[in-house]
Amino acid sequence: MAGPSRIEWTEASWNPVTGCTKASPGCLHCYAERMAKRLQSMGQPNYRDGFRVALHPAVLDAPLNWSRSQLIFVNSMSDLFHEDVPLDFIQQVFAVMSRARQHSFQVLTKRSERLEALAKKLPWPSNVWIGVSVESADYAYRIEHLRRVPASTRFISFEPLLADAGKPDLTGIHWAIVGGESGPGARPMDPTWALSIRDQCLEQRVPFFFKQWGGVQKKKAGRLLDGRVWDEYPTRPVPAIIGSSGR
User: Fold this and answer.
1) Contacts of 158 (CB under 8 A, 6+ apart)
2) CB 238 within 8 Å of CB 205
3) Distance (Å, rounded) from C-alpha 172 to C-alpha 168?
4) Residue 6 CB: number of other CB atoms within 10 A?
5) Three-state SS at 128
6) Are 88 and 19 in contact (CB under 8 A)?
7) Per-domain residue ranges for the chain?
8) What is the pLDDT of residues 191-239, one digit of tens each?
9) In 10 A of CB 82, how many CB atoms?
10) What 8-state DSSP symbol labels residue 238?
């Protein structure tokens, strides 16, 4: 339920929640759903119900025991703000992140309305980054919800980028990720869509990360955009000094 990640923009994943339901077109070929079904067939106990939403309180304290500072993607196999995740469990996740100040936590959601609605009931330490997924201009409204969340680091994941995102307002946004869809049935990304976001980030001085072109063979497609790799990050807070136990 936790460990190293192969996702290019993070270092580790932590999954106190697994499972999800589709929220918008970007979910059509969900990698987490494919992975959950694979883990279910392998007999992994936390995926006995496949991709149904499930809470895993037994792994809540895991980041407290990781002494080395890491970027941690929270719920790579779910959405913390899914309507089936109770507020009190979300608060427990945030309490752990608040204690584990040696790490930076990346929380990404498509449920921006619920994120905004619950924001005042959650702590927002500087090591918690909060982001929303925007796969096209039709879902740019999620950025408005994000902007009203009192986090010190807000980011947008334009992945999978399925259409031109238009001219999103990046005011108060600290990071942007762009990526094409990968895996079976992957829908292609037009280079002009990615370049448009890159150019807007450059103009507005927002760190830009190009994750991948995607496709069925994403490694072959590579990560070069306009002839170079874009691996920019927002400024990270200085990790807290902790003992050898990680607490």
Assistant:
1) 133, 134, 135, 165, 176, 177, 178, 179, 197
2) no
3) 12
4) 7
5) strand
6) no
7) 1-20+30-111+123-129, 134-236
8) 999 999 999 999 999 999 999 999 898 889 999 999 999 999 998 766 6
9) 19
10) P
